[in-house]
Amino acid sequence: MFRVPRDHDGKGVVCPACRIMLRLPGADDEPPPLLTPAAGDDSEDLEEIEEGWDKDDRPQSGGDLKFLLGLAVPALVMLGLFAWWMAPDSAKAPPVNLFPFSSVAQNTDATPALAPKSLILEIESVVKSFLEAPTPEEALRHVRDPEKTAPKLEAWLAGKTYTAPGFRGVAGDSVAGNDATGEFFTVKVRTGDFEMREIVVIGREGNFKVDWESWVGWSEMPWHEFLSKRPVEGKWFRVELSWVQYYNFDFKDETDWVSYRLEAPDGSTSLFGYVPFASPLDEKIRPADENGSVKLLLKLKFPPGAVSDNQVIIEGISGQDWVEMPGSESP
């Protein structure tokens, strides 16, 4: 049931509930028994009817609600995107690491996590004690696996007197953690002669030790001996590897080999290393930046009957950077 404006003079009226045109009976007409839908689009009749309604009496259309929703939803989306963009970097999700831990060379560009402040002083204390140790015996107290390290340290000294590197402080106020285990930290230190160096500390809170082998760049045999004897069995060396194009003598075909430049840690020796083209080993050692370099622990050997003393085969890779990790294949 609904009311019709008194001043309405049209032929019919639209029911606000069912939207059906209803014919209004005249003064002399008898009400019909049935109500029938309006046929066609009688726009003139509709205009007459609409004009007679008061503004508050007109039925509301659902189209207005849809229109408002159409404006509100995109506005809310845009507002959310703007709020995300303005948020500080720490509030955003961290980037996904695209390279697995086993891919040593590819992982070098990843930003290392910073150690908590509570660990920095402890790590600094261990580093200071190691660098200021006056004797090899005292230094060994602060290194990982001292029993295994002792004969290597003696061979590295080669009869020379041990001299403590000295310690002037940690550079900056942060220590970088380099792997997912939370046991591998790289520290930038200034030695007694003001040289800036990196030193690796391994362990957990209360039991940190210095990785001596990566600190001195220890290798399985001296470089000069390796070049003169040209062993065909693989030997482990710490090197700085970079990409280079050099194909000659035993490695002429660049469709069979990929070439790299290998530098000794002290810069005294430089040679060329080769891996089979498109091999899994090549994928592991290849620097992410073709113009960059990476620290690697590699197994090197000469080809049988080698013509050159500066071209070697890269046979394997071990550890992370220059650090031999537990379970790694290295001496």
Description:
The structure is a single chain. This protein has 331 residues and is of the alpha+beta class. It folds into 3 domains: 12-57, no CATH class; 108-216; 223-318, OB fold (Dihydrolipoamide Acetyltransferase, E2P) (Beta Barrel). 25% of the residues lie in helices and 22% in strands. Strands 3, 4, 5, 6, 7 and 8 form a 6-stranded antiparallel beta sheet that branches. A 5-stranded mixed barrel has the order 9-10-11-13-12. It has a two-stranded antiparallel ribbon with strand order 1-2. β1 (12-14) and β2 form a beta hairpin. The protein is elongated. It starts with 11 loop residues before the first strand and ends in a 13-residue tail after the last strand.
Biggest pleated sheet:
6 strands, antiparallel
Query: Which geometry do the CA atoms define?
Result: elongated
Care to count the β-strands?
13
What's the rounded overall pLDDT mean? 79
- Rg, Å, rounded: 40 Å
| Total number of distinct structural domains | 3
Percent of residues in β-strands = 15-25%
User: What's the helix count?
Assistant: 8
Low-confidence stretches: 89-111
| Alpha-carbon distance between the two ends | 98 Å
Structural class: alpha+beta
Fraction of helical residues: 25-40%
